[in-house]
Design goal:
This protein is of the alpha/beta class. 16% of the residues lie in helices and 18% in strands. It contains 5 helices and 15 strands. It is globular.
Length: 219
């Protein structure tokens, strides 16, 4: 009998042949306790060397005192080495030096001339695949269904269901036409109960929009 699909509150959702949990794969919402990071259900991250602190591994510049946030949607897939470089990594560079004097003391931290202004939030949509060693830069807004190639360096806004790659990342192609993308965003299958999603796995993974529309209509 095949194993049941793990619940959203599972930490390590992959079970190895010997019956032990694969510590290198986590449902990220259950592995992170950081008030500046929000992660949707079933989004997973993987690492060949599982960290003790997943928040620090994925977003090392997002400190507890940082003003910006990182939001990641549901059912995202985050490969080993992917990094979210949030706005607190910035240096001020409009003056004669970009050196962060305030970081090393010599006076109060607040209001120091070497501190940059607070930066933008970073937002990742639903069902986004972030490839190995990709870099998501501060303030990026990644639409649902986007695929980010391995090693890509992504900034700015990426339209839903685009494939991006390179440094700087460019749109390689769109996954579907405008009508299909609009329908998928309207259906928003990632908001369905997991049982309903599994019942329609063939339509979702087989790009059967007609069946997906029918399932949405009967939901």
């Amino acid at each position: 009998m095949p194993p049941p699909f793990p619940s959203a509150d599972t930490l390590n959702p992959v079970i190895l042949r010997d019956g032990t949990a694969h510590e290198g794969v986590v449902f990220l919402a259950n592995a992170i306790d950081h008030h500046r990071i929000s992660v949707g259900a079933y989004t997973y991250a993987s690492a060949f060397d599982p960290p003790a602190d997943w928040a620090a591994r994925l977003a090392p510049y997002l400190h507890i005192f940082s003003p910006e946030t990182l939001t990641i949607g549901k059912f995202c897939q985050i490969a080993d080495g992917a990094l979210f470089i949030t706005a607190s990594a910035h240096h001020r560079y409009d003056g004669f030096s970009s050196f962060p004097f305030a970081a090393f003391g010599g006076g109060k931290m607040k209001g120091r001339p070497s501190n940059p202004d607070p930066g933008p939030d970073t937002v990742i949509g639903n069902d986004v695949w972030v490839g190995q060693d990709a870099r998501i830069l501060p303030g990026a807004r990644i639409g649902s269904g986007v695929i980010i190639g391995a090693g890509a360096v992504v900034t700015g806004e990426v339209a839903p269901y685009s494939v991006v790659a390179g440094n700087p990342a460019r749109v390689v192609r769109r996954r579907f036409d405008d009508e299909t993308i609009a329908a998928l965003l309207d259906i928003a299958w990632w908001d369905w109960p997991i049982e309903r999603i599994l019942d329609n796995e063939a339509a979702i993974c087989g790009a059967r929009l007609d069946r997906l529309r029918a399932a949405a209509a009967t939901g």
